[in-house]
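subagent[fold] <- orchestrator: predict structure for attached chain, return tokens only, no commentary.
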Amino acid sequence: PGRVLRVFAPGLCSAGSALELSIAQEQLRIMSPCVLIGVLTGIAFGGLNAKGNFLFPSLGQGVANVVMVAAILGAGGGCAAAGAMEGGRCLALAFLLGSAGQLLVQGIAMHGRGVSTLLRPRLSLADWPGVSRAARVLVPATLSSTMLQLATYTDLWFASAWRGAAAVMGCAAMVVTAPVGLLSSAIVVPRMPLLTQQAAELRWDAFRDTLDDMLRTGIALGLPLSISLACFAEQIVRAVYQRSAFDARATQEVVPVVVTYALGAGLFICRDVAVRAFYSLGEGRAPVAASLAALAVNAVLDALLSRTMANPAVGLVLSTVLVTSLSFAWLYCELARSLAEKVAAAGSSPPPTGEASPAAKWRTFLAKSAAASAVTAAHCKAVAAVAAAARDAHALPLARKLAGALPVSAEWIADASLLGVCLVSSWAVYYLCSRLLDRVAGL
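subagent[fold] -> orchestrator:
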């Protein structure tokens, strides 16, 4: 473990970081089986999706989270009283148990639905032609996924030079990537079979329309998510993390990183959609090329922004957001060019009379989204000010009355309640504005 950490986190090996290095080494030893568990979980995920079962793959991560939280609570809240080393061991073991729980649930689902039996190899030379066809997409997909992990390692390599930067980035990432991953799966997983079917049937107009609908859905969900995360970042971090050793100072360190991550929420979703569209076309070279270029640019921007910005963690995350935007722009241009060639070769007819062209649909959608975003941002700013004023005057006294019956503090009840109201109202305003603009455009 020590040699691995010296490569990927050299900052931990510097003077004054002996405890952190020892904890990381112990955690790496405990979590090493997660490599095999992750591979098997991915196989189970793909097998269930291929059979049209999306429920258990979606629930798997939730099961992992429940098991992790239960393990930590069962060990006394992370073994904090026993010291940092025991706390680190407890967290690593909880992660291992959560990963094993996720695999167990998906394995049982595979067996119960007759998809397959996990951990039973089945190799046959008769399957080689199909395996060869799948490898043409699988190998580039694997390389593209590896590039994403290498980009993460690049960020951590630079983050290890500043004490606490990696922890700050990890806390901020969890706040943003959890809803982004949920929304991305909700968009991609149900429609991927349709995209693949349309590509196989050479229905390129339908493929383009489905892809555009997925991208517009990603933007329509990503924009209100970005606005709400950016405007209510402090309230979110305080409600999610601020307790015990995570004090107000730690909250202030994480908030600007959450805001920076929030800027790319919609981009993360749309890039995932674009990559999956290439895979449904059976083309894997463009995602690999984009990932390689993104990795190089990310390393350069990490080195530049982490040293020029006051908060190194913000610089590293900003680099990720910028690289994601460039990567998505490149992938979308390549997709548009490829689809234009396929549509022209197929001799597709123009849109029916009265139906807007794809370009016109995009212009209308982007104008509507910009207007709805501006209104939502103004609403969030006003609501945040009202919530701050109402917290001490109204919410906190009411929360103190409820705190005795609940295993949480009155401050957390007040913060979580106000945060829920703020988030629901911001999303409601965005979609009400969108519907209103749709009606105005239809007049």
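orchestrator: received. Logging for downstream: The radius of gyration is 24 Å. The chain has 15 helices and no strands.
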